[in-house]
Write a structure and sequence with these properties.
This protein is an alpha/beta fold and 177 residues long. It is 18% helix and 29% strand. The protein has one domain: UDP N-Acetylglucosamine Acyltransferase, domain 1, CATH 2.160.10.10. The protein has helices spanning 13-31, 35-42, 109-112; strands spanning 6-8, 47-48, 53-54, 59-60, 66-68, 73-74, 79-81, 86-88, 93-94, 99-101, 103-104, 117-119, 122-124, 129-130, 135-136, 141-142, 147-148, 153-154, 162-165, 170-174. Strands 3-6-9-14-17-19-20 form a seven-stranded mixed sheet, with no helix packed on it. The protein has a five-stranded parallel sheet with strand order 2-5-8-13-16, with no helix packed on it. A five-stranded parallel sheet has the order 4-7-10-15-18.
Length: 177
C-alpha cells in the first residue's frame, strides 16, 4: 500500500467538539471499564468485530476512523491517534502502551505556525502481534502474521510473517510456523 499524505485542519469547531466527546467517552471507560462503557467506546468506531477486548486506558481522538476486526485484544493504555484511518485485522494482539499514529506535522518551524496536520492511514493485517510500548508511525502498513518487538518504532512497511524490532524497526527474521 502506498501512503498518501493529506493535510487537514484539526482546529475546526466541529473536530474540536468531536474530540471533546470522544475524549469524554475514553475517560469514562478508563474510570469504569464496565460492559456498558465498553459498548459506548466500541460504538465510536467505524467498525468493530465480535469478541474485541479493550483494556482500560484506551485513548483515541475521533473513533470514527478506526476499524477493528474480530477477536482483537488491545492491552492497557493504548493510544490510537486517528486523524487518518486505522485498520486492525482479525486476531491482532496489541500490547500495553502501544501508540498507533496517523498524524504528523511540518518539520519547518515556519510552516508549523500554520498548525496544519499531515495525515497518513495505518493498516495492520490479520494476526499481527505488536509488543509493549511499540510506536507505529503514520503511513505504515504491517502485513499479516508479523510481530513487532516491544519498544520498537515502526516507520516503514513490515513484511508478512516477519519479526521486526528496534528503533527504527528492522527485519530480524522470517517467522516459521
Amino acid at each position: 500500500m502506498e501512503a498518501c499524505t493529506v493535510i487537514f485542519n484539526s482546529l475546526t469547531p466541529e473536530l474540536i467538539q468531536q474530540r471533546h466527546r470522544v475524549h469524554d467517552t475514553c475517560r469514562q471507560f478508563s474510570k469504569s471499564p464496565s460492559k456498558g462503557n465498553l459498548q459506548r467506546l466500541k460504538g465510536l468506531f467505524l467498525s468493530c468485530g465480535a469478541d474485541v477486548f479493550i483494556e482500560q486506558g484506551f485513548y483515541c481522538d475521533y473513533g470514527d476512523k478506526i476499524s477493528i476486526g474480530e477477536r482483537v485484544y488491545l492491552n492497557m493504555n493504548c493510544t490510537l491517534l486517528d486523524g487518518g484511518l486505522i485498520t486492525l485485522g482479525d486476531d491482532c494482539l496489541v500490547g500495553p502502551n502501544v501508540q498507533i499514529l496517523t498524524i504528523n506535522h511540518d518539520t519547518s518551524a515556519k510552516k508549523r505556525l500554520d498548525k496544519a496536520n499531515h495525515m497518513e492511514d495505518v493498516y495492520i493485517g490479520a494476526n499481527v502481534w505488536i509488543g509493549a510500548g511499540a510506536i507505529i508511525l503514520p503511513g505504515v502498513n504491517i502485513s499479516e502474521g508479523a510481530v513487532i518487538g516491544a519498544g520498537s518504532v515502526v516507520n516503514k512497511e513490515v513484511e508478512a510473517y516477519c519479526l521486526y524490532a528496534g528503533n527504527p524497526a528492522k527485519k530480524i527474521h522470517y517467522i516459521e510456523d
